[in-house]
Specification:
Helices cover 48% and strands 12% of the residues. A 7-stranded parallel β-sheet has the order 3-2-1-4-5-6-7, with helices on both faces. The chain is built from 9 helices and 7 strands; from the N terminus they run αβαβαβαβαβαβαβαα. It has a single domain, classed as NAD(P)-binding Rossmann-like Domain (Rossmann fold, 3-Layer(aba) Sandwich). By secondary structure, the chain is α/β, with parallel strands linked by helices. α2 packs across α7 and α5 packs parallel to α6. The structure holds nicotinamide-adenine-dinucleotide and 2-acetamido-2-deoxy-beta-D-glucopyranose (NAG). Nicotinamide-adenine-dinucleotide (NAD) binds next to α2.
Length: 311
């Protein structure tokens, strides 16, 4: 039966009211200090992939300080154990697992072990990532494939492993560490950008699904940082550091943890990126390209060295 005009008008008025209400809430949350809106996560279990280095390790330390239990995954056992011993010193309870995130079987196997130990993962942080850092035709097939597996597919398998339990409890938080390269293409990062765009799309769709299913106790956060000085992007350079600074790893880790505490859906850093993304949405292609090239976005990877890779 067709809805009456009155019903439609009523629904539109209701929608407008809710839009204005939630817009105001978003503005208030954006200006309110973190301490005034942070959720209490003490005693919760945080699983971090790629915890053996970089921001994965620094996030682990921050969650340890917040009295969380930690489950640390990495392919690099010694790096992971180093993170564990630093967290141990803070009094945290920490388990480490050596996992190759490019293998779905291994992810499922280790996830099963975690669950069999009776652990409920409250916060899942998909952080591990790799980069080839070459122009597309110079990227080996193996690296292209691995980049998609670690930066994107691993997110599918970890979420498939731990979301069902979160759904049952209507409680949890899934964090995708993507990149600013997940929102704009970059010369020399084609496979990486593809993997990060995918991670962004996965987060957004998952968030919509959870919202639609009224799972209001489960949150997602997608993180889109510009370069961070962890070593992963060593040699990459920014033309106007005042406009687009390379981020300090500990600052970035702190912002991510704050975003989790505030149930922030999306975090881009530095802040000016929000403006760039908005401009990208309305400017035609060629002027956009010229501006991005002027800003150095097409030369970011010219002198890239990165980490030593065993291809
Ligand atoms: N560093 C940056 O400039 C930057 C910028 C934007 C986004 N990011 C993203 O942030 C995340 C963390 O980056 P980082 O700078 O801390 O890098 P990092 O290289 O310091 O740490 C990455 C960790 O992931 C682990 N890892 C790699 N492949 C793995 C695999 N197959 N299985 C299991 N673990 C694996 C590594 O051993 C390492 O400990 C990545 O997803 C990266 O793409 C980094
Ligand atoms: C593994 O971690 C150790 C300790 O942090 C580091 O020295 C080493 O370079 C890492 N190995 C690889 C292959 O990344």
């Amino acid at each position: 039966m067709a809805q009456s005009t009155l019903d439609i008008v009523k629904n539109i008025v209701k929608l407008l009211f809710l839009v204005v209400y939630h817009w105001l809430v978003a503005i208030i949350k954006a200006v309110l200090p973190v301490s005034m809106q942070a959720k209490d996560i003490s005693g919760e279990t945080v699983l971090i992939t790629g915890a053996g280095s970089g921001i994965g390790r620094l996030m682990a330390l921050r969650f340890a300080k917040l009295k969380c239990r930690l489950i640390l995954w990495d392919i690099n056992e010694s790096g992971n154990l180093e993170t564990k011993s630093k967290c141990d010193q803070l009094g945290a309870s920490v388990s480490t697992y050596t996992v190759d995130l490019s293998s779905r079987d291994e992810i499922y196997k280790v996830a099963k072990k975690v669950k069999e130990d009776g652990v409920h993962v409250d916060i899942l942080i998909n952080n591990a990532g790799i980069v080839t850092g070459k122009k597309f035709l110079q990227c080996s097939d193996a690296m292209i494939q691995k980049t998609m597996e670690v930066n994107t597919m691993a997110h599918f398998w970890t979420v498939k492993s731990f979301l069902p339990d979160m759904m049952e409890r209507n409680h949890g938080h899934i964090v995708s560490i993507a990149s600013s390269a997940g929102l704009v293409g970059v010369t020399g990062l084609a496979d990486y950008c593809a993997s990060k765009f995918a991670a962004v799309g996965f987060d957004e769709s998952l968030r919509f699904e959870l919202e639609y299913l009224k799972k209001d106790g489960i949150h997602t956060t997608v993180v889109c940082p510009f370069f961070i000085n962890t070593g992963m992007f060593d040699g990459a350079k920014t033309r106007f550091p005042l406009l687009l600074p390379i981020l300090e790893a500990d600052y970035a880790a702190g912002k991510i943890v704050d975003a989790v505490l505030c149930n922030q859906a999306m975090l881009a850093m530095p802040r000016i990126l929000y403006l760039f993304f908005a401009i990208k949405g309305i400017i035609p292609y060629k002027p956009g390209y010229l501006v991005s090239a002027f800003l150095g976005a097409q030369n970011l990877m010219d002198d890239f060295k990165g980490r030593e890779k065993s291809e």
